[in-house]
């Protein structure tokens, strides 16, 4: 009962836009005290948003052609990487549309979707990548042109389902908790891939075995599932629960209001 | 008042372990209804965790030498990438310790920390990477050896602060919301980098201008800050608020109980 109550509480601020992976600690059955303390001396400062927004230096909305590039960067972690990287992009007129960056071991890894105003990305990619490599010589860098950002399909449709045959795809979040076992990521994602369901966002984490006696595993997946497949996906995930001794929660997310409005705008 | 209440509610399930970025929609002042609906017909199924854990195939705890490798993979999105990738790693005896994976534009990007039991990573890295490249020929792949996973320092210490001079670093989360402007990522991270504060986790996102009239920006940063620098960091972030017309919230996170226990174990 407690677990359910906690889940529903959390659900209040969830939507499909960004996955939020509540911590292993908070959801672990063995740890009850891993909660945030809001230090009163540094209580969150909520700026007067209405004022701030109205006086903000709003960038001009132009019809300038944008190219889209996905970058990955991987190198030794050090102070100032994100500052230097974002400063460099800004100096080129590139905009960071979406990113995930993490310290992993002693390295710092970045994946980012960048838009470049006023240039055809197909012409500029090689030059862009060369410039990055000179600016960040210690980093391994990949860059790929990609299709125009699809704000509407933050989660992509299954490839095999044509729009007319399966017009509706419901956004879902799948959370996995339990002991870490070889093959658990493959087992969960196999349930989805075997039904041509693509994933928009995945996070996994493990913790040392020192605390609980065995390594704990945590996974959070966002995807879109055709309504007709939801029950069989759930059934197969129950088999994964049994086999690996993990707890799997499946949430249907509210269709994103932002997406709907973007849709309306784009159809004008 | 509403904004504060929502923030504090969310804080209840926060800890420092994994950043959770509540959605742009939920925190946007112009959208009030972007909440999750938990479909009753597919209510979250909470497995009987105690039973599941006790009967789980707990992997043997061995003192086998592990090597740690950070991988990045970038390629065209298609069904089954995560399944195939994780299956391949499992078949090699590699374990996914931590990962971020996202569809960005039409691509799928992965950054992951992998441990390889029973092999010296220094010997196996080239072979490992070659194997991956044959298995995933359409992907651009980078692989780097990294230091042993530092479960204790999920957020890394500032490089310049010696342990004796500044033994305590407090975990903080910084959230930025507002209109997207060129240079906002650089401005926020500059405040931290100029004080030798490294970042453990960063997520950024923007949304189309169609809904609100201008593009919205969202950023979530996790880092550790020396207590003596907290007030000046806050002061400088206030300047960023003013300059860019964004709202920045600074949370001190509870020191992770899991980390403490891992500490204790490792010191034995």
From TrEMBL, chains A, B:
PANTHER family tied to this protein: UPF0237 PROTEIN MJ1558 (PTHR34875)
Origin organism is Gonapodya prolifera (strain JEL478)
Cite the Pfam families for this sequence: ACT, ACT_6
Which domain of life does this protein belong to? Eukaryota
Q: What is the protein name for this chain?
A: ACT domain-containing protein
Q: Which GO terms describe its biological process?
A: amino acid metabolic process; carboxylic acid biosynthetic process
Would you indicate the residue range of the signal peptide?
none
- The chain positions of domain ACT read 173-251
Q: What PROSITE patterns does its record include?
A: ACT
Which InterPro entries does the annotation name?
Answer: ACT-like_dom_sf, ACT_dom, UPF0237/GcvR_regulator
């Amino acid at each position: 009962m407690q677990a359910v109550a906690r889940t529903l509480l959390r659900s209040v601020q969830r939507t499909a836009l960004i996955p939020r992976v509540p911590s292993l600690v908070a959801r672990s059955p063995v740890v009850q005290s891993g909660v945030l303390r809001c230090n009163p001396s540094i209580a969150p400062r909520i700026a007067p948003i209405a004022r701030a927004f109205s006086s903000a230096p709003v960038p001009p909305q132009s019809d300038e052609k944008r190219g889209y590039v996905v970058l990955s960067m991987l190198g030794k972690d050090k102070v100032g990487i994100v500052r230097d990287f974002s400063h460099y992009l800004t100096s080129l007129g590139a905009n960071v549309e979406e990113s995930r960056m993490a310290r992993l071991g002693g390295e710092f890894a970045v994946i980012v979707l960048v838009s470049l105003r006023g240039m055809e990305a197909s012409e500029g990619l090689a030059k862009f990548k060369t410039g990055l490599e000179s600016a960040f010589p210690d980093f391994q860098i990949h860059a790929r042109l990609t299709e125009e950002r699809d704000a509407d399909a933050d989660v992509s449709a299954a490839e095999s389902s044509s729009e007319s045959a399966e017009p509706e795809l419901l956004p879902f979040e799948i959370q996995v908790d339990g002991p870490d076992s070889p093959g658990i990521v493959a087992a969960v994602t196999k349930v989805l891939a075997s039904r041509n369901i693509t994933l928009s966002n995945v996070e996994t984490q493990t913790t040392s075995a020192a605390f609980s006696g065995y390594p704990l595993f945590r996974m959070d997946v966002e995807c879109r599932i055709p309504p007709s497949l939801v029950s069989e996906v759930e059934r197969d995930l129950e088999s994964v629960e049994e086999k690996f001794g993990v707890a799997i929660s499946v949430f249907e997310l509210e269709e994103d209001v932002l997406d709907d409005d973007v849709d309306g705008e784009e159809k004008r």
